[in-house]
Design goal:
This protein is an alpha/beta fold. Helices cover about 40% and strands about 15% of the residues. About 0% of the residues have low confidence.
Length: about 400
């Protein structure tokens, strides 16, 4: 069967639940990074809209043993068997390096052929990228790469076997296309990353004269460019940096480093910057990925204009108006950073442009409203069960 792609993002169905269907949700705990935070909001809506809803949670990636994976699989099978023959949907959150959802949901269709198994793929085209990354390998990072890097073709074959003819969801058009190429027997849907605000924010033109960098510090997120950005931006534009791991960054004049911030503090953080700079670049030798950006999602939620590279799927956002994309193809890294600084400085100085982009962000936020997004999943599952 050839891969299938639905036209456009999934939307809200006419019904509000899956009558008589047991839904089993396999996902990271709330504290397990961006996917965990996403899954908490996603699950909260499912609890409200699906009567027979069950969660199987796991810790952050790289913490499970083989025994732990087997125990989680047994727990899922027990929930399936306890449905007494009623329809069952098992949905997992798959992200790079996280075997915690991948292996416990593998092959469930063979346990009971009428079980519908689907997944949201957060780092397409790979479902998991490192299918052997249990705690033993996580504690031995060089060994983890020594095992997985030479066996990339085998890893993709394993992922293809597990994916089978399932329905997969991606958070960008580029992600959808990459999944269709990698797993031609699957059906792939585009579903936006849900956007939710933690509170009211100051209008972008009325905020302090500052730009921000935000998120977890790791390779490819662009925090290594802070010193260069500081040298390029006008002295009267402050750089405010927040996120887990930022407290370890070196002190630089004109740069405020806030460290990790709680969800409740996000409105205050975004109210203190006029624009967010997202200088993402290549971060993995394993190949290009097309993840949804939780950092950009938070900016949309708090009506904060974004200046970003076109890395991965970010380039798609240019059409919606709330994001200024600086193409990095054909440019050196230094040239790209220079263009980001110029674009950010021009934006910060223009009240009209800030207001225009904030209005576009309101439309982007509405299209990504959590109930709207989750409703599309419910509709997809209901239709798949009807076909079955």
């Amino acid at each position: 069967m050839a891969g299938q792609m639905a036209a456009g993002p999934v939307g809200k169905p006419g019904t509000t639940d899956l009558d008589g269907v047991r839904l089993i949700y396999v996902a990271a705990e709330r504290t397990a990074g961006g996917v965990g935070a996403y899954s908490e909001v996603f699950a909260g809506i499912l609890r409200r809209r699906v009567a027979d809803f069950h969660e199987v949670r796991h810790p952050r990636p790289g913490t499970d043993t083989v025994a732990g994976l087997r125990a989680r699989r047994r727990a899922i099978i027990e929930l399936i068997d306890a449905a007494d023959g009623r329809p069952v949907v098992v949905h997992g959150e798959f992200s790079g390096g996280s075997v915690e959802s991948f292996w416990p949901t593998a092959g469930l269709e063979r346990h009971r052929r009428d079980v519908l198994v689907s997944a949201t793929v957060h780092d397409p085209p790979g479902l998991v990228w490192w299918p052997g990354r249990v705690a033993f390998l996580e504690q031995r990072k060089l060994l983890n790469h020594a095992v997985h890097f030479p066996l990339r073709t085998l890893s993709r074959a394993v992922e293809r076997r597990v994916a089978g003819s399932r329905t997969l969801f991606a958070m960008s058009d580029a992600g959808v296309r990459s999944l269709l190429r990698a797993y031609p027997d699957t059906t792939v849907r585009h579903a936006h990353m849900p956007v939710w605000s933690r509170g009211e924010v100051v209008s972008a033109p009325d905020r302090p004269k500052a730009v921000g960098l935000f998120g977890l510090v790791y390779r490819g997120k662009g925090f290594e460019h802070v010193e260069r950005l500081r040298s390029l931006l006008p002295d009267d534009i402050v750089i405010r940096i927040a996120g887990r791991g930022t407290e370890a960054l070196p002190a630089i004049d004109g740069v405020e480093i806030l460290g990790g911030v709680d969800d409740a503090d996000l409105p205050a953080y975004f109210s203190a910057i006029r624009a967010l700079i997202v200088p993402y670049g290549a971060r993995s030798p394993y190949g290009e990925a097309f993840p949804g950006s939780s950092v950009v999602t938070d900016a949309i939620a708090h009506l904060t204009p974004v200046v970003c590279t076109g890395h991965g799927a970010l380039g798609e956002l240019r059409a919606e108006g709330g994001v200024r994309v600086v193409d990095d193809d054909g440019r050196t890294e230094d040239e790209t950073v220079s263009e980001l600084a110029t674009a950010a400085a021009d934006l910060v100085e223009s009240r009209d442009r800030l207001s225009e982009m904030a209005e576009a962000l309101k439309a982007m936020r509405e299209a990504r409203e959590p109930d709207e997004v989750v409703g599309g999943y419910l509709e997809t599952w209901a239709r798949s069960l009807c076909r079955a």
